[in-house]
Here is the input.
Amino acid sequence: MSHVASVRVIVTDLEAMKEACAALGLKFMEGQKTYRWYSSGWQDDSPVPEGLFDAEELARVRAMSKTDRIKRMNEVLGKCDHAIRVPGAEYEIGLKSQPDGSYSVTWDWYGAGGRAILTALGGEKAPKLVQEYANAKLKSEARRYGHIIESEERMADGSIRLRLLAGRY
Amino acid sequence: MHEVIIDSSGRIRTVYSDALAPTLAKLGAVEIARASMVEPGGGGWLADLAPVRGPVLGPFALRADALAAEVEWLLDNGTPIPTGGMR
Here is the structure.
């Protein structure tokens, strides 16, 4: 009897992210501490997005008064540890390190400034960037554990299929 | 040979293997779920793929053949993520 393993990808590896950016024609800006987004700041006209805070802080921010929430959001948004530039986009993507060692991926997809990012990344949750990161990270880790990448295919449904020959682990 | 699918949302799925487990653990939050049951029945061994909304395969004379058939079905059908259904 078989089991299926599925993985919700968490960004932790900057080298894999650089490879993902290269695959998508994006420019990784190592060490850039701010990213361009809506110049007037957080307007509080949409829900606080997930991914900026851990669950406890997210609940706390969502429960704040509008004034406090605007202040808190503007402390966070636009600040990052690394950034990604998308050709033709006015805004940029921010990568911010989190206490657990992962990176949040934040960008403003609303309005004309973020439209080119929305197109390049495939949607609000940046599926194309996540997929290319996963592909780069999977191949990197597989090699590290002695596996051989036998083939890589881009499928008609948009998925990537890798065939691995397991080595010692 | 192990096959790994990275779907267009970036989610990874594969038939579970001990050999790949350390690699997958480096990628994010891993969930593992039963995809089939291999049990005696029909005068042999049956592979029931209900957890992935699949068919019952068999009967097979050997349990090993039922196990091989279920893996082949999973790979041929894109390694669907189990939904937990039972017949």
Notes: Chain B has a mean pLDDT of 94. The CA atoms of residues 18 and 44 of chain B lie 28 Å apart. Chain B touches chain A through 47 residues (CB under 8 Å). Helices of chain B lie at 21-25, 63-76.
